[in-house]
Amino acid sequence: MTAGVAVRTPAAGTAKRARPVRLRSALTRFSALGWTVAGLVLASTVWSLVVATGRFPRQLFPSVPQILSAGHALWADGLLLDDISASLSRAALGFAIGAAIGVVVAVLTATTAAGRNLLQPVLRVFAPIPTIGLVPLAILWFGLGENSKTLVIALGVFVPVWINSHSGLASTPADYLKAARCLGAGPWQTLRRVVLPEAAPDIAAGLRVGAAMAFVLIVVAEMTGTTAGIGYRIYQAQLFSQADRLIFCLIVLGILGALCDLAVNAVTTPFTRWAQEEH
């Protein structure tokens, strides 16, 4: 080997290629955070300008400082953390039940003849029914306790999870199924190694929509038969015309929903990375 001639080893080349990838990933995360902050600042500015016009009553259209002050009062009274904890536990339980049943039923309706012929027609009739319309029925069946709230949230989560999961599972390319059969794969192996991985992006999308739906329905579920929760606090603020407290609770609900969406996305990303790499 000639002295003074640098030789690039494969490991060194890989390390040099990995550094720009990590840098781009970090810049992407920073950019997303920066745009989020910028969007919030813009929304606050527009809201403040509308309040400054004086065209709306301050009691019904509070300023940003008034909204923050209402949130501080909830925190000082020790109510905010209890409300967040109660709503998160209800939303998480309802989401877990609805999502699990949605995926299992989607497997049945997409991969079995009995599911397609018996379950799917019934579910297509049930799916368009607004979940809010089932609240009175849930209360009749389970009363005003936690069971009725869990049922309402689970039903609302089930529908988007089932629809998205069924769509992904039923659209597995026929060539993939033929190749699996030619290689001697049985029904269970085909489902586990071919159908589920192929449908993973659609299942993940359904889970994210279901998580958002859980936080939409938590407001309705907590309006009756409870004394804690973000939905309960929103209902009380509406009764007593406390617009500043109501808006603050809506913001908290939005933040919780966004954080849960990020969590679901982080959990499902390892199973859908192949689809992201294709694009």
Automatic annotation (TrEMBL):
One Gene Ontology term, aspect cellular component: plasma membrane
Membrane topology summary: Multi-pass membrane protein
Ranges annotated as spanning the membrane: 26-51, 93-113, 125-144, 211-234, 246-264
Main location group: membrane
Keyword terms: Cell membrane, Membrane, Transmembrane, Transmembrane helix, Transport
GO annotation, biological process: transmembrane transport
SUPFAM superfamilies registered for this protein in UniProt: MetI-like
Domain ABC transmembrane type-1: 84-268
Annotated localization: Cell membrane
Family under the similarity heading: Belongs to the binding-protein-dependent transport system permease family.
The protein, known as: ABC transporter permease
Annotated source species: Mycobacterium dioxanotrophicus
